[in-house]
Structure formats: C-alpha cells, structure tokens
Amino acid sequence: MKLILSFVAAFIFFFQSDLEALRNSYAKANESNANTANFIEVAEKQSGSDAVTSGYKAAAKIMEAKISKGNRKALVKTGATNLESIIKSNPNNAELRLIRLSVQENIPKIVGYRGSLKDDKAFLLTHYSKQNVTLKNYIKRFAMQSKTITEAERATLK
Fold it and tell me: How many helices (H) and strands (E) does the chain have?
C-alpha cells in the first residue's frame, strides 16, 4: 500500500512540476520572441494529454504564428480550433479560460479571435474563490498585467 501511495505522490509531484514549467514559461512568452520560442519548446515536450496541458499546447500553436515565417493563418486557426474544442469539453476549467483570455488579449485585432474576452473575464472573476491557492496566485499574476481586467476587478482578487 505504501508503495502505491509513493507512486501516486511521485506522479502528482512530477505532473505538477511539468504544469508549473508550462505556466511559468507561458507567463513570460509575450515578453520576447526568444521567450515565445522557449514556451513553444516547453509545450511540445509535454507528454500529458490532460485538458490543461492540451490547452497550453493549443496556445503554443497560436503563438507559433508570431515567430513563424510559414503559414501563420493556418497556425492560428489550428491552435484556436483546438483551444475552443478543449474549452467546449471542459467549460468550467478556470485555467483553460485564463489561457484563452490571455491569447485573445494579445493576438492582433485583425486576426478576429477575440470573441470570448468578456465571457472569460466574467467566468474568472466569478469562479476565482473556488480555485486552489496555486491557480489563484496564477490568476492574480495574470490580472496584474491584463489589459481586460480593470483596477477595481483586480482589487476583488484576494
């Protein structure tokens, strides 16, 4: 029994460190092209197939258009379609909503992928208190630099 618990604990710890690496890399991705490339690399190396990891992989595909010389439109379309599909299957996942909000906030307006900004912001503000401490801190860090979340809304995130 102890052996099984040890394996479960090791798996959870390993998964968390991968998720933390994804989160940290994603948070810095828009600062420079090098950080964007680093995030894409970190996302591609992830072997997990859970919804959140898949959401970050979809965001990486969208962000690849920023640094790619190839067909940018196809990259954005593929990534956006994947992200929308993942969120449709997991509509109550706050981290997925945060990913989509940040992507839509930072993508050029001409692309036209901005339809869920208000919904995602409202979802995050409404469901913030129900999240675990790690995700609350992640949401707060995002909110501090967000163009969509107002100063008054930031103050409600405790």
Answer: 8, 0
